[in-house]
Amino acid sequence: MIGNYLITSQFDINLVLIHATEGHKIAEYIAKKGVSASVGPSLVGFEKVELKNITFKTPVILWKVGVKISIQSDSFTRLCYFPILPCMAIKEGLPVDEALKAVKINAAEMIGVSDRIGSLEEGKDADLVIWSDHPFKNFYAQNKLTMMVLLQSCRQLFCSLTKF
């Protein structure tokens, strides 16, 4: 991270940390340097060394010190579980509106496409979904039975939507 920061600051390049699964360890440093962080993958095994100290608290810790965060998945296979990721961050203390920003506008800003996507504004491209309630409402409920039923439903819905 430190080497990357030195190079990007010399050449005026926008640095975004991708796979910042252990970003909580250097959260203050990341904030001080004004670097954004994309946190994830979070729903995987420990087959990679960078996942040794993974925690769902990472997005919260980074956000609390002022780091712009996004939440990411790691592969198309795990994409059907993606809605669980912001909900786990919410359960760890990330405000709901910040979790939404982490999967929408923040992510778009980090990759330089916020002029076209990431928020509902005139002139932007959008995929619109109409919900009967807040999309995260029941995901971060304390009731474990409700959580299991919703996770299964979510898995079926999102896996069917992501098949080609």
Automatic annotation (TrEMBL):
Under Gene Ontology molecular function, one entry of this record is: hydrolase activity
User: Domain Amidohydrolase-related, which positions?
Assistant: 63-136
User: This protein's superkingdom?
Assistant: Archaea
Protein name as it appears in the record: Amidohydrolase family protein
